[in-house]
Write a structure and sequence with these properties.
Layout lengths: L1 E7 L2 E8 L2 E4 H4 L6 H5 L7 H6 L5 E2 L4 E2 L9 E4 L4 H10 L11 E4 L4 E2 L5 E3 L6 E2 L2 E7 L15 E8 L2 E2 H4 L15 E9 L10 E6 L2 E7 L7 H11 L7 E3 L21 E6 L3 E9 L2
Parallel strand pairs: 6-17, 8-14, 9-19
Antiparallel strand pairs: 1-2, 1-5, 1-14, 2-3, 3-4, 6-7, 10-13, 11-12, 11-17, 12-14, 15-16, 15-18, 18-19
Length: about 290
């Protein structure tokens, strides 16, 4: 099942994709004003029966998308989590070692943008880079979650483009300053529920810039598994329904190319992940 957040008129809502239409579950289930509220409820296990009892009220082509979870409490992002990406950075001349524990940082929700919405190149940067990533959406919250139990906490999967403002990323040893500019975190178009994708299933990930493939890898190249990321993050803080874990990007980023290549106004960036769909965003310059 595909679940998403969108705007209907002036109202933020959420729903399920049924063929080429959307069932407005925010209207049908007012006790759950946002998708994250539904993910953490007992009714989430009944989602198939609930959706079957309603008809689509709006065409998928007519909706204005929101980020899948518009205001997650936490967006936990993994750093250097693909072996092929690690190797390309080393080949570029960066001194990197594979660490014992997953390097992570936090994004803020205001940095997010929706499917089809412009991703904004800030005026302070000429090094605006793509990073296609698999996103994990938490359904069942918890603290000190074991790796053995981690899959029980996953509501579903989506696509993230952890767009990076590279000059600002390298201002200091921590990289969050280059990862949190407003309008730089595409997230969508929807979430595919966990029952649709087998745990540990390698998924092909392709990023395209203006139709040209710039990343082509699969999630089997992850250094730290989804289970490890959930267990590690939940040791630091309590995960809650609607939290997002962006699991890192594979090889092919613009920074590590020779010559380097970055996004500019007028470009279109797409991230496609097998079994989920395609996240598409035009690039615009900050006014």
């Amino acid at each position: 099942m595909k679940l998403l957040s969108f705007v209907d008129g002036n109202r933020e809502t959420w729903g399920a994709v049924v063929e080429n239409g959307v069932v407005d579950l925010g209207r049908a289930l007012p006790q759950y004003p946002a998708l994250a509220d539904f993910l953490g409820s007992d009714d989430y296990a009944r989602r198939e029966a609930i959706v079957a009892g309603h008809k689509p009220t709006i065409a998928l082509s007519d909706i204005k998308y929101l980020p899948v979870i518009p205001r997650p409490e936490k967006i936990v992002c993994a750093v250097r989590n693909y072996l092929d990406h690690h190797n390309e950075a080393v080949a570029f001349g960066m001194k990197r070692e594979i660490t014992e524990f997953p390097p992570i940082f936090l994004r803020v929700w205001r940095s997010q943008v929706a499917h089809n919405a412009p991703v904004i190149r800030p005026k302070v940067s000429d090094n605006f880079d793509w990073e296609g990533e698999l996103a994990v959406v938490i359904g069942k919250g918890g603290r000190h979650i074991s790796q053995a139990d981690a899959w029980n906490h996953v509501a579903g999967y989506s696509i993230y483009n952890d767009v990076s403002v590279r000059e600002w990323q390298f201002h200091a040893k921590q990289i969050a300053s280059g990862k949190n500019f407003e309008g730089t975190g595409p997230f969508g178009p929807w979430m595919v529920t966990a029952d649709e994708i087998a745990p540990e299933q390698p998924l092909r990930l392709v990023t395209r810039l203006n139709g040209e493939t710039v990343q082509d890898s699969h999630t089997g190249h992850m250094i730290f598994s989804i289970r490890k990321l959930i267990a590690y993050a939940s040791t630091i803080f309590t995960l809650v329904p609607g939290d997002v874990i962006a699991t890192g990007t594979p090889a092919g980023v613009g920074w590590s190319r020779k010559p380097q290549r970055f996004m500019k106004a007028g470009d279109v960036v797409e991230v496609e992940i097998e079994g989920i769909g395609t996240l598409r965003n035009p690039v615009v310059a900050q006014d």
